[in-house]
Write a structure and sequence with these properties.
It is built from nine helices and eleven strands. It is of the alpha+beta class and about 350 residues long. It is elongated, with a radius of gyration of 25 Å.
């Protein structure tokens, strides 16, 4: 409850939890100050105070010292007249509900994207054998070793593209899962990125040292993380900060399966962010924000994660884009249906 100056004169235990402050400390404080002067909240409070009408809206609360992650809340403001209270603010944290809805949408998107990728991969694979064969025949006719280096590039790049197409076409058998240290894997990806001339970037690590090894197909996971990190590096355009973060999350639902513990691997950059009009479609094949991009990196990474019962999701705004890779620690079939 707020007075006419928008100062808190009372709050219940649920509000204490959402705001991260006790009732004793909150009394006399500005609600807007506690939520970083959220513009939508300021507008709602001002409207209700002026008009006496009821207003409701969904809004995002920025991270705080108490809550490290951004939260999505349903907020309803009503005029009241109880002692000194003139406004009643009801806030419901719907972050997880919204996330589950978004995860389901991503899984549906991935299913559609997978079919498109496989059709595209078949069309690409057919001419690759001809290109490789022609390069080999040309190589035999060249006496100049320097010129043969160019045919070597054609052959090696054709083989790389063929391997990528094979990956896109489907599992071709179950992943070869072995115990993997996820931090060692991330450091391997960083070495690849640095070898590609990205040493000017600031790379921060925020690893959870207690995260255990996970049974994963190392090659597939390297490719997935490499795709995500390369996207972040491209967004930074040679300057900025790339943050690699790992943590364990308990009782997390992916699709209709609840996992007791998952590993959340977060790849964050402080670049310009993903354009709002593209955020609902970036996991579809051939969707890219870069002229030189193929639009296959994210769909391929999502496909590789799906083979490990995992999921990639993201949040993005200017100055902060984070891709969350969710991987169940238990890679066996002993998962619990919701």
């Amino acid at each position: 409850m707020l007075d006419e100056h928008l100062l808190i004169i009372g709050l219940n235990p649920a509000a204490e939890n959402i705001l991260g402050i006790s009732e004793r400390r909150a009394r006399g404080e500005s609600l807007l100050r506690l939520i970083d002067d959220e513009p939508e909240m300021r507008d709602m409070l001002t409207r209700v105070a002026k008009t006496g009408d009821h207003y409701a809206n969904e809004m995002r609360l920025a991270p705080t010292e108490v809550h490290s992650q951004e939260r999505i809340v349903d907020c309803r403001v009503s005029p009241i007249a109880i002692d000194d209270a003139s406004l009643l603010v009801e806030i419901t944290d719907v972050t997880r509900r919204v996330q589950i809805s978004r995860e389901n949408a991503l899984l549906i998107q991935h299913g559609a994207g997978r079919q498109m990728i496989r059709q595209l991969a078949h069309e690409i694979k057919n001419p690759l054998g001809g290109i490789r064969g022609a390069a080999q025949l040309l190589e035999r006719q060249l006496e100049d070793r320097g010129l043969r280096e160019y045919t070597d590039v054609v052959i090696s790049e054709t083989d790389r593209l063929a391997a990528l197409v094979d990956t896109l076409l489907g599992p071709g058998g179950p992943p070869n899962k072995q115990p993997v240290n996820i931090h060692e894997l991330l450091e391997y990806v960083v070495r690849i990125i640095e070898a590609e001339g990205q040493r000017s970037l600031i790379i921060r690590r925020e690893y959870d040292a207690g995260l255990p090894t996970i049974d994963l197909d190392r090659d597939q996971m390297v490719q997935a993380f490499l795709n995500l990190v390369r996207n972040a590096v491209a967004a930074l355009d040679g300057q900025g900060t790339l943050t690699l973060r790992s943590r364990a999350v308990t009782n997390f639902t992916i699709g209709d399966i609840r996992h007791r513990v998952i590993a959340s691997i977060e790849i964050q950059d402080d670049g310009p962010g993903i354009p709002t009009d593209m955020q609902d479609s970036i996991f579809y094949p051939l969707v890219t924000t870069r002229p030189e991009g193929t639009g296959l990196g994210l769909p391929a990474a999502q496909e590789l994660l799906s083979r490990h019962a995992g999921l990639i999701e993201f949040e993005s705004r200017p100055g902060r884009t984070v891709f969350f890779t969710r991987i169940p620690l238990d890679q066996s079939v002993s998962t619990e249906n919701v």
